[in-house]
């Protein structure tokens, strides 16, 4: 997964010369490790019996680091080099994200200022990555107002928000994120100093999915360590089956479809697809998996009880419904017909919601079993559909 297809696009060096497609480098892999800690912090906030407020806080605190990861990933895609300057900038961003991760448990109370300052630091890193492109020869030169507004001004305003008292601080954050998104949407790919390496983008997003799936596995293992009973073990095994089915279907079908669609698109459409699918819709994909991680941990810990807490069922089953809904949005964005998408999306969303409705009468192991069964059925349907398509393509 992640090998660029012919025509997928290539990056350019500082002079704008095309380079061949590449894989994630060692610095990018090291950089992603800090998101392992961030994912753990965010998921932990949904353990037990989370309320609607807890879920809103989770989404609100997850989007800024996801957004900056996307920004830094695209920057690394466009400005691929291994010079000390880039290394220092990416390591500085890593430290800023670690600060944000430390602030997550209290970011909605007394650590919000630290969280804001960590995010502000990443905007300055982005400024350092993009500023050299303002000196490129035409037509590759980036207008100076873009990094000054998108990176510097945003970073300064985020730093200033550290002095704003709650709850107004969170309103300021939402406005600043919306402004960043508006600037990106208005650009629509214009002014890029190089062609996007779409194979690299698919690989990087897939690696982030691996991070959140890994957090789910860690949650299962650590929870089983706390509750060492046969029922907890059974729930843990069923939870692993659920995660394995999601991994199988995502990397056999989801990432492969993304790579093929991006490879067939021209530069402009490839940028828009990468922005919408990788930047926006995959936020909900990964958020759904992080919710499931918290729900699975609670299911193991509550395995010997009559049923799961309501909040735990919502993050577990609701997380799976959100995961399928996000993939339905991705399929529609690729141009698939609503009828074809509904065949798998309706049961993919409906079955988890039915489990939520009936959870008060279901043992924890049965909740996880039903969700795992749905994920396996989804995988089998995708494989059957793939075989039919291959057979139809082979028929003269």
UniProtKB/TrEMBL annotation:
Pfam families membership: LtrA
Keyword annotations from UniProtKB, A to Z: Membrane, Transmembrane, Transmembrane helix
Spans traversing the lipid bilayer: 55-76, 88-107, 113-133, 145-164, 170-189, 201-221, 233-251, 272-300, 312-332, 339-359, 365-382
Segment forming the signal sequence: none
InterPro entries recorded: Low_temperature_requirement_A (IPR010640)
PANTHER family cross-referenced by the UniProt entry: BLL5714 PROTEIN
Name of the protein this chain belongs to: Low temperature requirement protein A
């Amino acid at each position: 997964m992640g090998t660029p297809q012919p025509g997928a696009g290539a990056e350019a060096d500082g002079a704008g010369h095309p380079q061949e497609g590449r894989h994630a480098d060692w610095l990018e892999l090291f950089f992603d490790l800090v998101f392992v800690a961030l994912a753990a912090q965010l998921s932990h906030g949904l353990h037990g019996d989370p309320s609607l407020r807890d879920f809103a806080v989770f989404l609100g605190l997850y989007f800024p680091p996801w957004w900056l990861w996307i920004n830094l990933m695209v920057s690394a895609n466009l400005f691929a080099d291994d010079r000390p300057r880039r290394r220092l900038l990416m390591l500085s961003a890593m430290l800023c994200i670690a600060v944000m991760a430390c602030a997550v448990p209290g970011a909605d109370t007394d650590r919000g200022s630290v969280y804001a300052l960590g995010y502000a630091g990443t905007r300055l890193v982005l400024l350092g990555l993009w500023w050299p492109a303002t000196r490129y020869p035409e037509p590759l030169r980036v207008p100076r107002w873009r990094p000054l507004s998108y990176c510097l001004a945003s970073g300064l305003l985020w730093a200033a928000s550290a002095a704003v008292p709650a709850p107004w601080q969170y309103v300021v954050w939402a406005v600043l994120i919306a402004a960043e998104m508006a600037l990106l949407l208005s650009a629509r790919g214009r002014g890029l100093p190089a062609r996007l390496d779409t194979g690299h983008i698919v690989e990087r997003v897939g690696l982030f999915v691996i991070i959140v799936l890994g957090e789910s596995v860690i949650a299962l293992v650590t929870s089983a360590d706390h509750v060492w009973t046969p029922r907890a073990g059974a729930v843990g095994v069923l939870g692993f089956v659920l995660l394995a089915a999601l991994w199988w279907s995502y990397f056999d079908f989801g990432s492969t479809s993304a790579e093929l669609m991006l490879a067939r698109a021209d530069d402009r459409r490839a940028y828009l697809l990468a922005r919408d699918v990788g930047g926006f819709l995959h936020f909900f994909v990964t958020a759904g998996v992080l919710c499931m991680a918290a729900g699975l941990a609670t299911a193991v810990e509550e395995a010997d009880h009559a049923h799961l807490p309501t909040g735990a069922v919502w993050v577990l089953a609701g997380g799976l419904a959100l995961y399928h809904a996000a993939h339905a949005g991705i399929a529609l964005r690729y141009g698939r017909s609503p009828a074809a998408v509904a065949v798998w999306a309706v049961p993919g969303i409906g079955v988890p919601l039915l489990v939520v409705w009936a959870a008060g009468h279901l043992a924890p192991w049965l909740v996880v079993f039903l969700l795992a069964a749905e994920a396996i059925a989804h995988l089998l349907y995708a494989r059957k559909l793939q075989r039919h398509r291959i057979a139809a393509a082979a028929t003269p």
